[in-house]
Design a protein that fits this description.
Layout (H helix, E strand, L loop, with lengths): L1 E3 L5 E3 L2 H25 L17 H25 L8 H17 L3 H4 L7 H26 L9
Helix pairs in contact: 1-2, 3-5
Length: 155
């Protein structure tokens, strides 16, 4: 595949190289999205997971500047090499995560914990029904997003 740089020079780029560069830059940009949220104080908070803002105002400012510079370089590469912007449907992303989490939750029981040592019977009685319920709920989430949806016109 023949690509043109903004300088006018031609660059030969195979499909494999095209795909490899695109995927690398998409993964970098995904991390930059999360880091950019952190500079704005957007942190994730759950019942078992919580992010803590440990950046100083100066660090946030410097990080924003670095993110901007990296994105400028990535934009140049995207344009020069005619790379595609990756579009990830939230339902598809959630479905993949839900599948992985379901597997983990299905192992949240006394039998699976035996791999780590003897499990007290009272822990097994407590954990098994809750683990089953958590796995079932995650399965329901996966089912919810595995069904096709109609997309509004103009989206």
């Amino acid at each position: 595949m023949q690509m043109k740089k903004s300088t006018g020079a031609s660059i030969e780029l195979s499909e494999n190289h095209h795909r490899s560069i695109s995927i690398t830059l998409q993964l970098v940009d995904k991390a930059l999205c999360e880091w950019d949220d952190w500079t704005k104080g957007k942190l994730r908070v759950g019942v078992m997971y919580r992010q803590s803002d440990t950046f100083s105002p100066e660090q946030k400012n410097e990080l924003r500047n670095k993110i901007d510079r990296i994105r400028q370089l990535m934009t140049q590469m995207r344009d020069d090499l005619q790379l595609e912007t990756g579009v990830v449907a939230t339902a598809h992303s959630m479905l993949g995560q839900a599948g992985v989490l379901w597997e983990m939750l299905a192992e949240l029981n006394g039998r699976a914990l035996q791999k780590s040592g003897k499990v007290p019977e009272e822990l097994t009685r407590y954990l098994d029904p809750i683990g089953e319920q958590l796995a079932a709920e995650m399965n329901e989430i996966a089912r919810l997003f595995s069904q096709p949806t109609s997309t509004p016109l103009g989206s």
